[in-house]
Amino acid sequence: MTKPILVTSAAGGTQGRTGRHVSEMLLQRGARVRAFVRQIDERSDRLKSRGAEIFVGDFLDVRSVEQAAKDVSAIYFAYPVQDGLADATAAMAFAAREHGVSRLVNLVMYQSSIDAPTPRMRQNYLSEQVFEWAGVGPVHVRATVFYENVARLVGAGMPARGAIRLPLGNESTILPLISAEDVARIAVGLLTGPERAAGTAYPVIGSAISIKEIVGTFARVLNRDIHYEEIADEQWRSEVLARGWNAHAVEHLSSLWKSLRAASLSAEAARFAVTDTIEKIGGAKPKTFEQFVCERQSEPAVQPAAARAQA
What's the whole-model pTM score? Predict the structure, then answer.
């Protein structure tokens, strides 16, 4: 019998839900999946009903991570945008090496370097190095801003004000974006396709559109009067922290907004190119932002309100 593929963040949460998408796509292909989840709930039950082996564990508990990695053929590692990435990486690198895993797909941010503009991106780069030092065959999917996170930002402020309120400069600011499903398709291709050279990185962008185009898409699909309001960094931070967003994610996004604002001042820096990785490895053309918004309108809720955020 073939060994299962370990998929972390498999239940899905308030961020991109790539782990859930990866799990479901692998199951559709007939692959065995060991779904690493935080708790048993309707999300894990859904995966179990589709054939996944459910493993309840904690990223930061090296014993549970080591057990989860036992007798698997490959690992998909996606840690939420919250504190603990260094410890979670070290635990998974140890577990993968301990059990002889030679294929690991690591989800990180689009810009991953020691000079990247946000603390999380710089941590991602160190995470890449740890997996490479461990010799566990890592490849890195460097994804830009998820459509899902843009929708979350919009949904947080729009019901009351009919506005998209962000500290992103004027409406001409370009956002490099991608669907979590496209990220998952790439990950599945890397987990099941030909082996790739360890340390290879795949930066991925599905679309590059302006704030004006984002506003227009929501207005058109929702048939609402929607507009953009530029707000100050501190105002945005205060508002999202008051809604319960974790400080780690807010710090990352605050730095990201500053970076995108700065890029908008330079035509060259703001010229984000859609990558062909989605089609070549993921096997499908990138999903457009409008397709995503239309699909989201008919999507039922898939997580409890108190669910822990997962990538």
Answer: 0.91
